[in-house]
Amino acid sequence: MSGDRIGVAVADDDPAVREALADLIDSHPDLELVGLASNHQETVRVAVEQRPEVLVMDVHMPKGDAPGSVRAIRDRAPGTRVVALSAYGDRESVLSMLVAGATGYLVKGVSAGEVLEAITRAARDQFSMSANVAADCAEPLRRADRASRRSEDVSSSRLEQSYLELLSQAPCGVLVMGVGGRIELANAYVRHAFGYSWAELREKRLPDLVPDRFRATAEQLTGQLLSTPATMVGRRRDGTEFPAEFSGGHLQGTRPRWVVYVADLSEVQAAEGRFRQLVESSPDAMVIVDATGRIQQANAQTESLFGYDRGRLIGSPVDKLLPDQPTTFSLRDWNVPQDEPLGHSLELVGHRSDSKQFPAEVSVSPLRTEEGPLTVLTIRDITEVQRAQFVLERSLELLEGTDRDRQALLSHLVRAQEEERGRIAADIHDDTIQVLTAASLRLQQLRRRLRDPDELRMLDKLEETLKLSLRRLRQLIFDLRPSSLEHGSLSTALRSFLEDMRNETGTDYRLEDRLEAKPPVETVTLIYRTAQEALMNVRKHARANLVRVQLLGLDDGCLIRIVDDGVGYDPLEVESRPGHLGLALIQERAQMAGGWCRIESEPGVGTTVEFWVPLGDPPTRPAAVPPPEHGSPAGETGP
Fold first, then answer.
1. Over the range 37-55, which residues count as b (16 or more CB within 10 Å of their CB) and which as e?
2. CA triple 17-20-21, angle to 5 deg
């Protein structure tokens, strides 16, 4: 650490969040990034070795538990203050971290300014908390206050002053009212939200902070215990208005006081608007269902898939669309683990408005809101998927049949798979890419209004992130449907894939095409998809410097050999591990075409994948051309 700069470490298992926090800290003149960690074990080690003044730590990381890490840091690096960062703001999580010794607790999604403020406050040994959890924790703080006041060695006036200081530092709006409802304390959040200085707010009353049409309501709320928040409108010093939520209650102390929490709902409404846009732009049907099983929101794709006007669906039971769904919508009834955030899927039967049925894959995602639990259902018609699966299963029965039947089956299966890939590629292009493009254009409009150099640099990074998203989506479209395959050019499609892989990972390649015969279109597609699966494994796992791809003619068929010089793996270990389907798909595709596949690897020496498929009329039995036992096929030399 240099000079008077505050040394900060960042611990988060998500690389994107970790790098964004690191960039944020590096960009601040008073902060210095001194360490990074991606799990709890690394977090404690970085704290002990680097001794940062502040450590920003994600609560939910692997290899340990957050409260235990905080206690270990307090014991082994007592000068380090921990600011907790979490996607969850429930009272139990917050209190467990604060009891363990965290100096602050922020919920992911807060502004960069709040993160920086929390870091600087922590360095001064001051407390910080996100606005959306401060009010929820107020009651436990009051209980702790009352319990502490009974302690003989701490005076009640000192505790009261400490509590008032804590309220003044809260990052949500806090007003403390005295006799007659006069303001005795207004923290920085309130002063910023309403545009008043402290001198101007002193002695004002709550009705002075709302438009005239809400004054009577504010008068009624003054001095009352609000069991539920009251939604009104705040009026700033310049006369402009903003949606606001007021809650509060009595403040225990030496004299009667009343505390009011004020939340600016503008950002909440903006977030709700972004969420509605996300639902609306989804290429799949999406409905949001409450705990009673009634539909609260549906997007345009729901109308298209089911044939109902969405206005008629709102308030209707979801069994109008999915009669076989669980009867209620708790996480237990959907068989979703309580700690499972996303992605639980079911296969049900969808019912359209014309009474026709279709097989539906339904992804179930719980959504916890202040109004209660909701369930987001993403619904996709899987008729074509099941048809392709049926064809695949039938292929196993027919592979021993006539050559003509098997070739027809292969042609139909490949065509069905490519049609599905084409549909997905079209959805990405026509929907998601368009939304991102519109967002990029709006950012360019915003650029013309900005003058501050720091804001312009931050806008540059945001635009780069959008450009990266667009590049990746375009690459996904190419992976789903390479244009060169439509013309039957296998080597061109593979070269394009290898070029992209080199640009992304730095892995160089050598492509050798010694295939003289021109395969049928269906065979070209099958060869490309099989090779693509093998090369994806290289891109994701091999960390290779060079990959060699050969297309060779052998025994009236095509032999594809893919050799990388990467880290390799233990085949027995990887192939027995659940969820690793890439190697099995390579083997199944080759065997389905009447060919064979061989995969060899060991740690430290790279991986070789070879597969052979017939080009003309395939042999009567797939085993007619067996894979070589060792090394390269006869007449060929290694790469």
1. bbbbebbbebbeebbbbbb
2. 85
Q: What is the CATH number of domain 269-381?
A: 3.30.450.20
Homologous superfamily of 140-264? PAS domain (3.30.450.20)
- Token reading at 525: 């597609």
Domain ranges of the chain: 6-132, 140-264, 269-381, 486-639
Give the rounded distance of the alpha carbon of 185 from its chain centre: 40
Q: CA-CA distances (angstroms) from residue 632 to 260, 556, 608? A: 78, 17, 11
Q: Evaluate if pTM is beyond 0.70.
A: no
Q: Do 486-639 and 269-381 have the same topology in CATH? A: no
Q: How far apart are CA 578 and CA 588, in angstroms?
A: 17
Query: For residue 163, which amino acid is it?
Result: Y
Q: State the average pLDDT over residues 179-194.
A: 83
- Beta carbons of 511 and 495 less than 8 angstroms apart: yes
Could you tell me if 82 and 45 are in contact, meaning their C-beta atoms sit under 8 angstroms apart? no
Alpha-carbon gap, residue 38 to 13, rounded angstroms: 4
Give tens-digit pLDDT for 324-352.
655 444 444 444 444 444 446 778 888 89
Question: Can you say how many angstroms the Cα of residue 46 is from the centroid of all Cα atoms in its chain?
Answer: 26
Q: Is the separation of the CB atoms in 123 and 6 below 8 Å?
A: yes
Sign of the C-alpha dihedral computed for residues 629, 634, 637 and 639 taken in this order: negative
The CATH fold assigned to 6-132 is Rossmann fold (3.40.50)
pLDDT digits (tens, 9 = 90+) for 64-100: 888 999 999 999 999 999 998 876 555 667 777 877 8
Which overall architecture, per CATH, does domain 486-639 show?
Answer: 2-Layer Sandwich (3.30)
